[in-house]
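EI: anyone free to look at a 432-residue chain?
SC: sure, send it
EI:
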Amino acid sequence: MAAIAPSPSEPISSAGRWEIADQLSKVLVSPWFRSSSRCSQLLRHVVELSLYGQEERLRERQIAVEIFHRKPTYDNNLDPVVRVAAGEVRKRLAQYYGTAENAGQIRIELPIGSYVPSFHFPVPAAPLAEAAPPAAEPDEQCSLAQESIAGASEEREPGTPVGRRSRTWLALAAAAILVATTWGVWHRPAASAHIAGFDAFWAPLLTAQSSPLISVGELHSRELTFVPDRQRSPHSEAFDVQVPREDSQGIPVERIGYLQAVAKIASVLGAKEKPFDFRDQSETTFADFAGRPTILLGAYENDWSMGLSEGRRFEFQADYARGRKWISDRLKPGQEIGSLPTSSPAPTSYDAYSIVMRDTGAVSRQSRILLAGVGDEGTVAAAEFASNPKYLDEFARHLPKGWAGKNMEILIRTRIVEGVLGIPTVVDYSIW
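SC: here you go
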């Protein structure tokens, strides 16, 4: 096995970190570690800090303070708590990997004389390279720029409004939706859950033993923009919120689009009576994702989404010096697909581009679904495409045999007219 230790010169890819986090969860629930809270705490601490690139915190004195609640002035020669615990961790890791059942897994080691762990991936698996899928065979790629795969024979129908002129009642309604979806009470008619493409796409997540985690981008914005609306009641004008200009931080504003995306995905899970957890991305760690399927919503405000799309054919990009963000296509270098400004609001009418991706960890075999757009409207469109059986079923008709058991990445285009979503259209896709 080849050792891969976290270091600035050889960083572990996002895909590799996910696999290591999954392996950590397996080790911690094993008989060797669940019987020792001290060893479990130390192993979790050193692995998670390594995954986050914070090896500078893995010093004996600092570990003693952060994990074993010693005072900063304590003498580690008189109280070698960290060294004793580290030795016990090494012994228990050796016992864990000494069994035939665990021998072929990702190996976590704590080298003697160091508190920075090393990681060994089993041969021939190469999870660090899985983020860059090989060029697909001719029948596994499709360019559909001139036709609408989803809904080509239908008349254009109104979609979901995602306007910026949010009112108090809309925020309250969104909050009610969020509460309802968190309890999994959204249900679609039973007939809609039996369409082949829809079922095949969601099967790896819905059949998993663990409940999925929905991680969504920041639910609050610190910018508030009022758009004049002469159709409003003159009474409501008197209750406009006044933004304190001297407060550079602004005030938190609910992001209605992200809440709508959560509601759409919760409807899929609710229809299958699949329990789930829901968290803001800033409150989620690698340990929360470990050993369970995941749904990531949002792009630039969700660090986990950006990491999962890193190195794929379709990848989110941004140039903050130029003030632009877009999707790149590895097969079409130089193109800035769906480019939008990074700071100012998106236009009221434009083509929103999104990525819909389903990926299975090479070692953990956990399913991960990414639904994200260049803008908030694009994220809602991605969630609509993945949660609506008619879109996935029609798209599946164009896919090669065996697609259901493979990873896939889909580029979606959706026309936005005055904040209203049109029909999601598949532009291109890759399967590997």
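EI: Residues 138-431 form one domain.
SC: 👍
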